[in-house]
Design a protein that fits this description.
By secondary structure, this protein is α/β, with parallel strands linked by helices. Helices cover about 50% and strands about 10% of the residues. The chain is built from twelve helices and seven strands. It has a seven-stranded mixed sheet, sandwiched between helices. It is elongated.
Amino acid sequence: MTDARSAGAPTVLRVVLGKRLQDLREKAGLSFEEAGRALDVTHATIRRMEKAEVGLKIPYVEKLLRTYGVTGPAELEEFLALAREANQPGWWHRYRDVLPDWFSAFVSLEGEAGVIRAYEPHYVPGLLQTEDYAREVLRAGNPGAGDAEVERGVALRMERQALLTREDAPLVWIVMDETVLRRPIGRPAVMRAQIARLIDSCALPNVRLQIMPFTAGPHPAMYGPFHIFRFQTHDLPDVVYSESLVGAVYFDDRDDVSTFLEALDRMCAQAAPTQSTERILGGIHKET
């Protein structure tokens, strides 16, 4: 488990390389302390490199690779080239003025995931929000923000949505509580447009929406929203993201992730099936 308030904002590639460094160290039979002595750094520095909590200094990486027995020129250069790429800021770096570190990591995971599953009891998820709905949500979440800051946040949210229609778009499977659709956000026209957007999203081949109706009663995840990211590369485990008012926590321990997956699977079985989502949304749209 990682508390992202202090973990910085690693790109997914940096996480992958950190895990590869860990695998190489363990294969070489070296402890954190022994690897640290090779660089004349503390064991904590090695641990943080493997956890992607710090940037990958190229001289450090090269010396570690040689210490771990990686000496072939081609293999060394391939790893170092990836390390240089991993140290480059993601496209979202342009929004660093409105994007906290703990959410930068989320955007990186979101952009690289092959499957994104989520439960949302409060708001329409950012990937499916209209501009007007996003604007209202951002104002509510940060009442002290000026118009310029809010508009920057809206622009970031809209740019994130490009992944839904790209060639290698991830599967996005979301369970939304009926509360999301009943809670008025902004003027009635804002909600009508937002629900219409959700109806349109149901036509996308990579989007599955399920509604958890009030009549379904209690369910396993009534404590709050979360996202689960699954990646096509075997170097990355599934990652769960859970947010609070002051930061976020990322879980990658297998037992923790399994708990979230089991809860979400139960909720998918309990929620209205995807085939009825458009009908439910259409009915609420007429009422709004």
